[in-house]
Amino acid sequence: MARTTEGSGVPVPQRLLAAATRLFAERGYDRTSVQEIVEAAGVTKGALYHYFGSKEDLLQEVYSRVLRLQQERLDAYADADAPVEDRLRDAAADVVVTTIENLDDASIFFRSMHHLSPEKHKQVRAERRRYHERFRALVEEGQRAGVFSSATPADLVVDYHFGSVHHLSTWYRPDGSLTPEEVAAHLADLLLRALRP
To answer: Could you tell me if 170 and 176 are in contact, meaning their C-beta atoms sit under 8 angstroms apart?
Structure first.
């Protein structure tokens, strides 16, 4: 099957994901039909099922694509040749910016993750755990080096930061007074201040 349909240069999977993301955000996952998704994407049901096995697969991919981007960026920050406090600050700010840039994806997922099958839920949890473990490793590296306080367990530090990140979709507005970068800087600074020895 061709990757694009007549007159469109956008690959079919991206068109389907864009349509699903918009509809899930507007109507909710459970109130959006496969027919509505394919009509919005301008493709057939056959095209959807060629790339995604089900509507549930679309939901999983909405979140997984953001997490893959964030994991790739975190790995780059963690592996950089820089002091650990700079690497952690960059990683902490980046997850805020990339979440805000993909706010619909994040809010859809947290509202709808209970619709995933146990197997898919387990896969997503494993992907998130890998991300959190890499982030926690930066905190632990700084704690071992004495750069960060070890008074608070690294797991709790990670939960503290990601609790803030996961709630962005409940209050952040693109037309608000703070840019994504400003929000990211504030939250990263809060994290680093909390870790001062």
So the answer is: no
End-to-end CA distance of the chain: 58
| Secondary structure of residue 72 in the 3-state scheme | helix
Cα dihedral sign, 167-91-100-149: positive
Calculate what percentage of the chain has a pLDDT beyond 70.
Answer: 96
Least confident among 80-94, 115-129, 139-153: 115-129
Tell me if 77 sits within 8 A of 87, measured CB to CB: yes
- Looking at residue 8, its pLDDT comes to 62
Interatomic CA distance for residues 15 and 21, integer angstroms: 10
What does pTM read for this prediction?
Answer: 0.86
Residues sharing a CB contact under 8 Å with residue 135, sequence separation 6 or more, in sequence order? 74, 91, 92, 95, 158, 161, 162
Other CB atoms within a 10 A radius of the CB of residue 32 amount to: 22
Could you say which DSSP state residue 83 is in? -
| pLDDT for res 33 | 94
Q: DSSP labels for 130-197?
A: HHHHHHHHHHHHHHHTTSS--SS-HHHHHHHHHHHHHTHHHH--TTSSS-HHHHHHHHHHHHHHHT--
